[in-house]
UniProtKB/TrEMBL annotation, chain A:
Phylogenetic lineage: Bacteria, Pseudomonadati, Pseudomonadota, Alphaproteobacteria, Hyphomicrobiales
Main location: membrane
PROSITE patterns, per database record: ATPASE_A
Record-linked InterPro entries: ATP_synth_F0_asu, ATP_synth_F0_asu_AS, ATP_synth_F0_asu_bact/mt, F0_ATP_A_sf
Top-rank taxon, per record: Bacteria
Family of the protein in this entry: Belongs to the ATPase A chain family.
Function comment: Key component of the proton channel; it plays a direct role in the translocation of protons across the membrane.
Protein name: ATP synthase subunit a
Extent of the signal sequence: none
Compartment(s): Cell membrane; Membrane
Keyword DNA-binding belongs to the record: no
Organism in which the protein naturally occurs: Shinella yambaruensis
From TrEMBL, chain B:
Keywords: ATP synthesis, Cell membrane, CF(0), Coiled coil, Hydrogen ion transport, Ion transport, Membrane, Transmembrane, Transmembrane helix, Transport
PANTHER family noted in UniProt: ATP SYNTHASE SUBUNIT B, ATP SYNTHASE SUBUNIT B', CHLOROPLASTIC
Gene for this chain: atpF2
Residue segments, region Disordered: 1-37
Classification lineage: Bacteria, Pseudomonadati, Pseudomonadota, Alphaproteobacteria, Hyphomicrobiales
NCBIfam families per the UniProt record, alphabetical: PRK09174.1 (NF006612)
Predominant location category: membrane
Ranges of Polar residues composition bias in the record: 1-10
Coiled coil: 104-175
Pfam family, one: ATP-synt_B
Subunit and partners: F-type ATPases have 2 components, F(1) - the catalytic core - and F(0) - the membrane proton channel. F(1) has five subunits: alpha(3), beta(3), gamma(1), delta(1), epsilon(1). F(0) has three main subunits: a(1), b(2) and c(10-14). The alpha and beta chains form an alternating ring which encloses part of the gamma chain. F(1) is attached to F(0) by a central stalk formed by the gamma and epsilon chains, while a peripheral stalk is formed by the delta and b chains.
InterPro entries tied to this protein: ATP_synth_b/b'su_bac/chlpt, ATP_synthase_B_chain
Protein name: ATP synthase subunit b
Task performed by this protein: Component of the F(0) channel, it forms part of the peripheral stalk, linking F(1) to F(0). The b'-subunit is a diverged and duplicated form of b found in plants and photosynthetic bacteria. F(1)F(0) ATP synthase produces ATP from ADP in the presence of a proton or sodium gradient. F-type ATPases consist of two structural domains, F(1) containing the extramembraneous catalytic core and F(0) containing the membrane proton channel, linked together by a central stalk and a peripheral stalk. During catalysis, ATP synthesis in the catalytic domain of F(1) is coupled via a rotary mechanism of the central stalk subunits to proton translocation.
Residues annotated as transmembrane: 67-86
Length: 250, 215
């Protein structure tokens, strides 16, 4: 079943660990989480080791990612939002590195697991809620009451706002998860056409050219999606954090 | 033992069949071990054959492990970022920013110095030019005055000479004129004598000459 397009998402145990009857095994997913952290942190750490006044190419990449997220957060949540810079930067780098590592053949894509993206989304929304109440108390609830809405419409608007707030972690996590999942399945399916058509002789090989071209094009597209989804995740995190910093600021 | 990976997937009926010919001894050993072994084998089968039919990302049995390891790895990553990487990159960027600002200050200071040097140079040049002009005009004035004085002296001396010459000319002219009068009188006397044969008096001739000269 090498051509099973969902085979790549299977979580296999590497070191079985069980605590209190719950399975906490070190799996291939865990391995690639470690790899993601090692790759991202290692890259950022070693490229900036020189502390060059005139940056090398790789140091520029690290600095660009820093400044990219810093300006994104400053525009999204203002200068008060900059206290969340480590969180947004970590999220962006983690998701981006996990997405890109997943593009390597035979590598596991950490972000194609709904539980991972959901946990990251809950981390974002949890930060928003906890910080919002900590900083503004019940003033945080002004988030759900836009100013300038006539009293008659208020219950309707408030309920819409509440529903939209509650749907945020779901949309945030499913967007990333579904993009990675669908992209990898599509790639696998088209690549599978190539191998199965190739096995049919000369006509099959000729027919395999089209799916091969599709696979190449989709690989390029998937690299774009990898970056784009990390970017979207970070931008939305900035917007949601803006609500925690400025709850009345609709 | 008697349960091979292939038979792990077989129906309970088949397992029962497989176990049927087994001795009670074998059944006992099988009963003693199965929990762990069957568990791992079904795990492998599940992995390879996708037997349970659960879409892998929705397989809830993996959630606890993924959450734990995500918490460990992402927590570590967050710590590394916030304690090491972000301060370091922030420091690099700040140092560069400071250095650029410092260099710009230095450059603007140097530019001001250069401007001041140019201004003082221009001033020196202007004053030197003015001084040169002054010296030149003084020299010219002096030369002019000297030349004027010389000319005036020469002109004066020439004037003197001209005056002396004119006086002399006038004297000579007067003398000549006086001579002319006497010559005329003599000539007249001789003419009169020749013509009429009588001598005219000197006074008569003089008055006649004067009358003629007065005409």
């Amino acid at each position: 079943m090498a051509n099973d397009p969902t085979h790549q998402f299977l979580v296999n145990k590497i070191v079985p660990i069980e605590i209190g009857g719950i399975d906490f095994s070190f799996t291939n997913a865990s391995l690639f989480m470690v790899a993601t952290v090692a790759a991202a942190a290692g890259f950022l750490y070693f490229t900036t080791g020189q502390r060059g006044l005139v940056p090398s190419r790789m140091q520029s990449v690290s600095e660009m990612s820093y400044e990219f997220i810093a300006s994104m957060l400053r525009e999204g949540a203002g200068s008060h939002g900059m206290k969340f810079f480590p969180l947004v930067f970590s999220l962006f780098m983690f998701v981006l590195t996990a997405n890109l590592l997943g593009m390597v053949p035979y590598f596991f894509t950490v972000t194609s697991q709904i539980i991972v993206t959901f946990a990251l989304a809950i981390l974002v929304i949890g930060t928003v809620v906890v910080y919002g109440f900590y900083k503004h108390g019940f003033g945080f609830l002004k988030l759900f009451v836009p100013s300038g809405v006539p009293g008659a419409l208020l219950p309707l608007v408030v309920s819409i706002e509440v529903i939209s707030f509650l749907s945020r972690p779901i949309s945030l996590s499913i967007r990333l998860f579904a993009n990675m999942l669908a992209g990898h399945i599509t790639l696998k399916v088209f690549a599978g056409f190539v191998t199965s058509l190739g096995a049919l002789g000369a006509v099959g090989v000729a027919g395999a050219i089209l799916p091969l071209l599709m696979t190449v094009a989709l690989t390029g597209l998937e690299f774009l999606v990898s970056f784009l989804q990390a970017y979207v995740f970070a931008v939305l995190t900035c917007m949601y954090l803006n609500d925690a910093v400025h709850p009345g600021g609709h | 033992m008697s349960v091979t990976p292939a038979s792990a997937e077989s129906t309970p009926f088949e397992i029962a069949q497989a176990e049927t010919p087994a001795t009670s001894h074998e059944t006992d050993t099988h009963a003693a071990q199965p929990a762990g072994e069957v568990h791992t084998e079904t795990g492998v089968a599940h992995g390879d054959e996708h037997a349970t039919g659960v879409f892998p990302p929705f397989d809830q049995t993996t959630f606890a492990s993924q959450l734990l390891w995500l918490a460990i790895t992402f927590g570590l990553f967050y710590l590394l970022m916030s304690k090491v990487v972000i301060p370091r990159i922030g420091g690099i960027l700040e140092t560069r920013h400071d250095r650029i600002a410092q260099d710009l200050d230095e450059a603007s200071r140097l530019k001001a110095e250069a401007d001041a040097a140019i201004a003082s140079y221009e001033q020196d040049l202007a004053s030197a030019r003015a001084k040169g002009n002054a010296i030149a005009s003084t020299a010219r004035d002096e030369a002019k005055a000297k030349a004027d004085a010389e000319r005036a002296k020469i002109e004066a001396s020439l004037q003197d000479k001209i005056a002396g010459a004119e006086t002399r000319i006038a004297e000579i002219k007067a003398k000549a004129l006086a001579d002319v009068g006497s010559i005329a009188e003599e000539t007249t006397a001789a003419l009169v004598e020749q013509l009429i044969g009588a001598k005219a008096t000197k006074a008569e001739i003089a008055s006649a000459v004067k009358t003629a000269a007065g005409e």
